[in-house]
């Protein structure tokens, strides 16, 4: 019986496609790339928070309707909104260069890994998508649906960079846990929470761009004194605001269920349990920061906190999603760092 199991395992290994052997990257190049990944992830985080600062301070027109130039100039004459919008564009430009460098680096060193074959083009595609949406936002009359889309695309761009960085830091280390199957139910809850969080984000960005931030009044969890607003108000700013809150509640419950399920499987997959605990903490803080946005009557810092936390939450759930995927059979072993 044991012999039979061994034979089956050997046969499965033989069936797996093997990548052609490749020279190991030098430890210095590998270390440089890891730090470049970290710097790019932090830079992209800054881009997202600054993007939120642009919309929260109404600086979207700080550069007029020209892109990539600002008021038709490379370095514009400053007003506060111009300064905010221009520094957002400048930081985005620098981070764009870092992203291209990171993409070239990971393709040069690790192109035979399936994760890199997906993440490297994703970093570039979403960088371009983000720039195009930024251009649409600056050039046209800031349509709420387009602006709301911008936030979600930026989150995916952030996650593709964060996952590439996680990949680089986990090579032949923590990533080995991915060889153990993700327990039944946990993988589904992780992917479900990730997709659902994207929906909450879209609704949140929509709330902000249609100006429905205070449509439920300065109160939470009640909305204008009621637990459920009158049905005839659902197709109004109140409906948009309420949909965001309701989706936030469902998203929180999903992550609670994920954490409970991952807790039971913590011996087999401690990585998924630890990650789900972080996601739980982040979504609770996210909901509290949403309440602070209301109680502070849309204070700038509170809205920046709300955007920063959701970036971390989405990054954390993306990381968990990556960890539900088995390491590809075609990997080659790299020296441990
Ligand atoms: C728990 C999951 C939540 C997520 C993932 C989330 C996410 C978001 C996002 C991405 C935005 C758009 C931010 C921007 O465009 O800069 C937003 C806006 C907003 N959210 Fe949430 N949110 C959550 C919970 C809540 C809760 C529970 C409340 C209310 C108590 C709330 C109230 C708001 C308000 C008022 C805005 C508009 C803020 C503004 O005008 O800048 N959110 N949310």
Main attributes of the structure:
337 residues; mainly alpha; disordered N terminus; binds protoporphyrin IX containing FE
Topology readout:
Layout: H1 2-15, H2 27-56, H3 80-110, H4 114-139, H5 144-170, H6 186-209, H7 237-264, H8 270-295, H9 300-323
The chain binds protoporphyrin IX containing FE.
Residues 52, 55-56, 151, 197, 200-201, 204-205, 207-208, 213, 220, 244-245, 248, 251-252, 283, 286-287, 290-291, 293-294, 298, 303, 306-307, 310 line the site of protoporphyrin IX containing FE.
Give a description of the structure:
The protein is mostly helical. It folds into two domains: 28-146 and 163-169; 171-337, no CATH class. The protein is built from nine helices and no strands. Residues 1-21 have low confidence and may be disordered. The structure holds protoporphyrin IX containing FE. Protoporphyrin IX containing FE is lined by residues 52, 55-56, 151, 197, 200-201, 204-205, 207-208, 213, 220, 244-245, 248, 251-252, 283, 286-287, 290-291, 293-294, 298, 303, 306-307, 310. The site of protoporphyrin IX containing FE (HEM) has 30 residues, from α2, α6, α7, α8 and α9.
């Amino acid at each position: 019986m044991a012999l039979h199991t061994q034979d089956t395992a050997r046969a499965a290994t033989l069936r797996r496609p093997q990548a052609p052997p490749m020279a190991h990257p030098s430890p210095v190049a590998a270390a440089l790339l890891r730090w470049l990944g970290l710097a790019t992830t932090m830079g992209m985080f800054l881009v997202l928070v600054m993007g939120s600062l642009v919309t929260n301070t109404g600086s979207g027109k700080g550069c007029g309707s020209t892109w990539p130039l600002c008021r038709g100039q490379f370095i514009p004459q400053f007003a506060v909104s111009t300064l905010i919008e221009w520094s957002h564009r400048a930081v985005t430009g620098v981070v764009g260069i870092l992203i291209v460098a990171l993409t070239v680096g990971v393709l040069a060193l690790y192109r035979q890994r399936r994760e890199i074959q997906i993440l490297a083009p994703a970093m570039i595609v979403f960088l371009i998508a983000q720039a195009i949406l930024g251009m649409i936002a600056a050039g046209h009359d800031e349509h709420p649906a387009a602006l709301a889309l911008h936030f979600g695309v930026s989150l995916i761009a952030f996650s593709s960079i964060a996952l590439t960085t996680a990949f680089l830091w986990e090579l032949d280390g923590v990533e080995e846990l991915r060889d153990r199957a993700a327990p039944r139910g946990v993988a589904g809850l992780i992917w479900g929470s990730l997709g659902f969080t994207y929906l909450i984000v879209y609704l949140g960005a929509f709330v902000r761009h249609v100006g429905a931030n205070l449509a439920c009044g300065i109160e939470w969890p009640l909305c204008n004194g009621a637990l459920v607003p009158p049905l005839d108000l659902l197709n109004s700013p109140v409906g948009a605001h309420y949909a965001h809150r309701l989706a936030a509640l469902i998203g929180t419950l999903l992550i609670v269920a994920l954490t409970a399920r991952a807790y039971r499987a913590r011996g087999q997959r401690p990585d998924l349990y630890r990650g789900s605990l972080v996601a739980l903490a982040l979504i609770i803080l996210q909901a509290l920061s949403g309440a602070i946005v209301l109680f502070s009557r849309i204070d700038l810092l509170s809205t920046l906190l709300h955007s920063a936390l959701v970036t971390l939450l989405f990054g954390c759930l993306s990381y968990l999603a990556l960890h539900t995927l088995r390491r590809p059979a075609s990997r080659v072993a790299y020296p441990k760092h």
